[in-house]
Amino acid sequence: MKAEIHPNYHSITVVMTDGTEYVTRSTWGNEGDKLNLDIDSKSHPAWTGGQQQMLDRGGRVSRFQKKFSGFLKKD
User: Fold this and answer.
1) For residues 37-59, average pLDDT
2) 37: closest CA among 59, 20, 53?
3) How far apart, in whole angstroms, are the C-alpha atoms of residue 11 and residue 4?
4) What percent of the chain has pLDDT over 70?
5) Does 67 map to a domain?
6) Closest CA to 21 of 10, 13, 32
7) Tell me, what's the pLDDT at 11?
8) Residue 68 confidence (pLDDT)
């Protein structure tokens, strides 16, 4: 096996959408970095039963809704 081909595995702090933090080990970033989550299990509709709204990243959802707004409407 080749030496030094594995990524650096270190501790980081993950910040949830509600501000809670926990420390885990990851290959992301550098030792001690903070990873701020945009969506997590406390804010994603799949885990909240649809009570939270998804963020519209880059207007994708609004463009889709505009494009197909009258698609299934019955007169």
Assistant:
1) 73
2) 20
3) 19
4) 83
5) no
6) 13
7) 97
8) 84
Task: Say how many domains are in the chain.
Answer: 1
Q: Answer yes or no: is 33 within a domain.
A: yes
pLDDT for the residue numbered 55:
63
Residue 22's domain comprises: 8-40
Is 14 part of any domain?
A: yes
Task: For residues 35 and 47, give the distance between their C-alpha atoms in angstroms, rounded to a whole number.
Answer: 21
Pairing type for strands 21-26 and 10-15 reads antiparallel
* Segment 50-67, tens digit of pLDDT: 655 656 666 777 788 888
Query: Residue 7 in 3-state DSSP?
Result: coil
Q: Which two tokens stand for residue 45?
A: 């509709």
In DSSP terms, 35 is beta-bridged to 14
Q: Is residue 63 part of a domain?
A: no
